[in-house]
Design goal:
With about 270 residues, the chain is α/β, with parallel strands linked by helices. It has helices spanning about 50-60, 80-95, 110-125, 160-170, 205-215, 250-269, and strands spanning about 5-10, 20-25, 35-40, 65, 105-110, 135-140, 195-200, 220-225. The two termini are about 30 Å apart.
């Protein structure tokens, strides 16, 4: 499907205007899923940039809204989360003219953006539990201690120092709130269903699967997939890889199945 990309200003967000890049198919079906997407970048990047994951998801027929969530208030917790939650609350009420009231509403994020998506999903549980239909966590960066076995591979893809710097910046307020480090959250019940994705050669694999297990233990419905090594997966968040990216078809298929399952369950209510 041909994807159209346009920049817009979300000017009625409660916390103030936020710039966003919107990805959508040239031909949109009725009631397309709307995805609020948080880019990666080790908590450090800001600005509107083309994103291969957002483009891939839009190719399935979804409308993907990728805000510059670090720009309005800064990139130290809890500011990015507050901006993300404010945008979610706006989309939950008005959809910002994107999709319609029948559109499923999802959160999605890669790497540091996966952390923000997970944190916003936790907060949404208490405020918009009936509005958020699901969360898509793609190699979420959720463990500030960086103590997993798989993260030892981070040096190989040039990400260890960057992630360490990013965590220092994000937690510079001197706190480690569960929303900032979702893997430390003790109450994970009632969270929106999750699609969790990683790869065998992903340094974030262990913490990704660990968080998926925690969600499942809390009663959240979780679909998880681990792509084989060699798909160029680290390129999703800027890691070095010798392999050309071939993960797009798998990601698109996993999302279609996830969204289809949720849609059918809603229809059966």
């Amino acid at each position: 499907m041909t994807v159209v990309v346009k920049d817009m200003l979300l000017d009625k967000v409660p916390l103030g205007p936020v710039s966003a890049r919107v990805y959508q198919g040239a031909e949109i079906a009725k009631g397309p899923p709307v995805i609020l997407f948080f880019h990666g970048g080790a908590f450090l990047e800001r600005g509107l940039k083309d994103n291969s994951v957002a483009y891939c998801l839009a190719g399935t027929g979804a409308i993907v809204v990728a805000p510059d969530y670090n720009a309005p208030l800064g990139n130290a917790f809890p500011k990015p989360l507050e901006v993300g939650f404010s945008i979610l609350s706006y989309l939950a009420k008005k959809r910002a003219g994107l999709g319609d009231r029948k559109s499923l509403l999802f959160l999605c994020g890669t790497e540091a953006g996966g952390n923000v998506a997970a944190g916003v999903a936790l907060k949404a549980r208490d405020h918009y539990a009936n509005e958020l239909d699901g969360q898509i966590l793609i190699s979420p960066l959720v463990d500030p201690f960086m103590g997993s076995t798989s993260i030892r591979k981070a040096d190989e893809i040039g990400m260890r120092e960057r992630w360490s710097e990013g965590w220092s910046q994000y937690l510079s307020g001197g706190m480690c709130h569960p929303y900032a480090a979702p893997c430390l959250c003790s109450r994970l019940s009632g969270v929106a269903p999750a699609l969790v994705l990683t790869a065998e050669d992903d340094p974030l694999c262990d913490e990704t699967l660990g968080y998926a297990d925690r969600l499942r233990q809390g009663g959240t419905k979780v679909r998880q997939h681990v792509l084989p090594a060699g798909t160029g997966w680290p390129s999703i968040y800027g890691g070095k890889t010798e392999h050309a990216p071939t993960w797009q078809e798998s990601l698109a298929g996993f999302f279609r199945t996830f969204a289809g399952d949720i849609s059918q369950k809603l229809l059966c209510k």
